[in-house]
Write a structure and sequence with these properties.
Helix 2 runs parallel beside helix 5. It is globular and about 40 Å long. It has a single domain, classed as Lysozyme, CATH 1.10.530. It has 170 residues and is mostly helical.
Length: 170
């Protein structure tokens, strides 16, 4: 148990780096700080997020931060652009990930976490690039970097803020 505070401190130090440094490394955490978000993560969703994060080797707190920013963790959410479910998957992306029902919390979160893991791999663990790609599309981010538009800049900052808050709560 003595190593957990040390690991959390290391993750906090990494997150404290400026956005422009692009030096944050995401490591799978052992637990979800579900009560650390502005609205606590419902227990059924915490279980799904934890399972998906474990399956794909992603920190559940990052997944929960994204879920909160994307839809406030609402399974029936639909954006103006047509993104669906808790993690706001676009229909074509959902199909490509094998998601059968984007409004099913388990299907949506597992598909989105799989996609998040793919993006983390593609962008060598760079959280700014990964989050911007999730928001604006990986091809655009590959071409222009982690700040393709104002929406992506705000998305990255918000998710990282929720994520850092969750890590501090561990």
């Amino acid at each position: 148990m003595r190593t957990r505070p040390f690991a959390v401190c290391l993750m906090l130090l990494a997150l404290a780096a400026p956005l422009s440094a692009n030096t944050i490394t995401v490591h799978p955490a052992s637990q979800l700080a579900g009560a650390a978000f502005p609205l606590p993560v419902p227990q059924y969703l915490a279980s799904i997020i934890t399972d998906a994060a474990k399956a794909y080797g992603v920190d559940p707190n990052l997944v929960a931060a994204m879920a909160f920013r994307e839809s406030a963790s609402k399974p029936a959410a639909v954006s103006q652009r047509g993104a669906q479910g808790i993690m706001q998957l676009m229909p074509n992306t959902a199909r490509a990930l094998g998601v059968k029902d984007a409004f099913d919390p388990r299907d949506n979160v597992f598909g989105a976490t799989k996609y998040l893991a793919q993006l983390l791999h593609r962008f060598n663990g760079n959280i700014d690039m990964t989050l911007a790609a999730y928001n604006a599309g990986p091809e655009l981010v590959q071409q222009v970097g982690p700040a393709p538009n104002q929406e992506a800049i705000e998305y990255v900052a918000a998710v990282k803020d929720f994520y850092l808050t969750a890590l501090r709560a561990l």
